[in-house]
Design goal:
The structure holds two protein chains of two kinds. Chain A is built from no helices and eleven strands. Chain A is mainly β. In chain A, strands 2, 4, 5, 6, 9, 10 and 11 form a seven-stranded mixed beta sheet that branches. By secondary structure, chain B is an all-beta fold. In chain B, strands 2, 4, 5, 9, 10 and 11 form a six-stranded mixed beta sheet that branches. The chains are: A mainly beta, B mainly beta.
């Protein structure tokens, strides 16, 4: 186990549904991330939270809405998704230290999302 | 434009041989480079990190080199085993951007 838990593991939703992905890290890290992994494409960074504050929004459509209530939990709220949003959504965490570049990422197992 | 290329989509080798995977990049000045392993249906797992001022790093059967002149990193697995079969990802940390960018990955298959 990596110390990062994602639920659910699999999700099938219609384009009009609203659902949420959940991520919890037990590592005491202060940064959390959402990545999207589509078939045959590299990992795409979506959102970054440092100390619960969003520091990166990588031009992600507004139908994806992140929430970070505390440094251990991260959510990704989904609404009116498109079939091309079907992908593996990965959560990761890391320990960011001031002045030290050390972005070793710990990933969860991901949520395999299918949009019908 | 910035680009990260991993040598090939798939690499097949015989058990016991050394697997060598390549990560080439253009228009980056990475502070460090990381290698991850990803198994089907799982998230990537961190393996090794090498900084721009380091030439080589080792961990058990793994060795990573980093040549900032050639803009290339090589990832070696010696005495490979079927259990080493997985997809291996390189990631470059860009200090200016403050984040890592991943390559497409190379899927390694080690045959008994």
């Amino acid at each position: 186990e990596t110390g990062v838990t994602q639920t659910p593991r699999h999700l099938v939703m219609g384009m009009t549904n609203k659902k949420s992905l959940k991520c919890e890290q037990h590592l005491g890290h202060n940064a959390m991330y959402w990545y999207k992994q589509s078939a045959k494409k590299p990992l795409e960074l979506m959102f970054v939270y440092n100390f619960k504050e969003q520091t990166e929004n990588n031009s992600v459509p507004s139908r994806f809405s992140p929430e970070c209530p505390n440094s251990s939990h991260l959510f990704l709220h989904l609404h009116t998704l498109q079939p091309e949003d079907s992908a593996l959504y990965l959560c990761a965490s890391s320990q960011q230290s001031s002045g030290v570049a050390n972005e070793k990422l710990f990933f969860g197992s991901g949520t395999q999302l299918s949009v019908l | 434009s910035q680009k990260i290329e991993q040598n090939s989509e798939a690499l097949n080798i015989q058990e016991g041989k050394t697997a060598t995977l390549t990560c080439n990049y253009t228009n980056y000045s990475p502070a460090y480079l990381q290698w991850y392993r990803q198994d089907p249906g799982r998230g990537p797992v961190f393996l090794l990190l090498i900084r721009e001022n380091e030439k080589e790093k080792r961990k058990e059967r793994l060795k990573v080199t980093f040549d900032t002149t050639l803009k290339q990193s090589l990832f070696h697995i010696t005495a490979s085993q079927p259990a080493d079969s997985a997809t291996y990802l390189c990631a470059l940390y860009n200090t200016n951007a403050g984040k890592s960018t991943f390559g497409d990955g190379t899927t390694l298959t080690v045959k008994p």
